[in-house]
User: Fold these one by one.
Assistant:
Number 1:
Amino acid sequence: MDISSLSLTELRRLQTKVEAEIRRRSDTAKKDLLKRMQKLAAEHGMSLNEVLGQEAAEKPVAAPKKAVAKPAAKKAAAKPASVIKFRHPENPAIGWTGHGRKPQWVIDWLAQGKPLDELRAEATVTAA
């Protein structure tokens, strides 16, 4: 294909098509790899989340207990819990708080022209 004879508009149109195809193939490869990894984990009697050590992230957070007055000497500086605001469209175990650098799956989602609000999750608190 000789692209030197294409107009700027045609080149941009081609670029858009190439980028979309790259994203599509990348997504397909990721899905296939995820399925293969899940199958391999199942063959060993585990889930993929167990292998990756993410089972704790999926467990519901217990309701906070009533505060009991404790001596100030034992007071530990704890980070406030992070609130997951966005969930991965295909794997709800993966989330993003909306702070810091965007994960690649969010960048890919936005590059497809999809709104970020479609990824919005119910308020879920996770330990930071």
Note: The chain has two domains: 1-55, 76-128.
Number 2:
Amino acid sequence: MKRFILIFSILFSSSTVGQELATLKYDGGGDWYSNPTALPNLIQYCNNNIQTKISSNQTSVEVESIDLFNYPLVFMTGHGNVYFSDFAIENLRNYLTSGGFLHISDNYGLDPYIRKEMKKVFPNAEFEEIPNNHPIYHQSYSFDKGIPKIHEHDNKPAQGFGIFIDGRLVCFYDFETDLSDGWEDASVHNNPESTREKALQMGANIVQYAFSN
């Protein structure tokens, strides 16, 4: 019964008042806790600039936990291995197909692991590159060229990928850009303020899109 109550709250709550975002905690040894200042800074930016009223509570949620259904959006990052148990796979699948949203930010080295594990979650779906005219790039802020480049990894262009289920974008994956580096405190990566602003604007777009779709 608790599962269905929580699913109902995701599907039918249009208000952002008091809602929380969470960092996804996963097994496998990867550093899921990377970029600790990223999500709090993004929440503050959203509340100050796009009129959300998201709770400032900093929290994490395990991918296997029923508490996952409390969050309209969960954020995931790291540099290394990711492992989803069979129960985690089922739980994440139910969360995403019931109205939840997952944002994955490749903090360099995550790519081969997350692609393999997300394939277990949705065996019949692939990560698709999201076109530049997709609404996620045109919420409060417009990015006509798609996802902005924030942090250099391998001299490759920034890309935004998505998993669509029944026509709905349920997972957004930023690759070769590391948006969450740009959300962190300025002193962490010494990014120019203009770069941090682009990262936070794109993050705000993701939040806004996830809350309204």
Note: Confidence is low (pLDDT under 50) at residues 1-15.
Number 3:
Amino acid sequence: MMKAIWNNTIVAESDDTIVIENNHYFPPNTINEQYFTKSESHSHCPWKGQASYYTVEVNGEKNPDAAWFYPEASHAAKSIEGYVAFWKGVEVVE
């Protein structure tokens, strides 16, 4: 079971992540939505498409753009469409 942890709190948990480029992508129904707020940030990956971001907030502390997902992934990355990955200090552990 993979867990995404930030500020000593499990923000996502799944035994069905997809690993791409050393990042675990969590199915959208496995994130604890109470900790996520959509951000206005976007970035572009040449082969996955346009990424959108979430700010993760736990116990009043915000971690801006600490999670990302591809709402409309390219054909090559359809398997992770909507799945959520983490960085910026969010630990992903087994």
Note: The two ends are 6 Å apart (CA to CA).
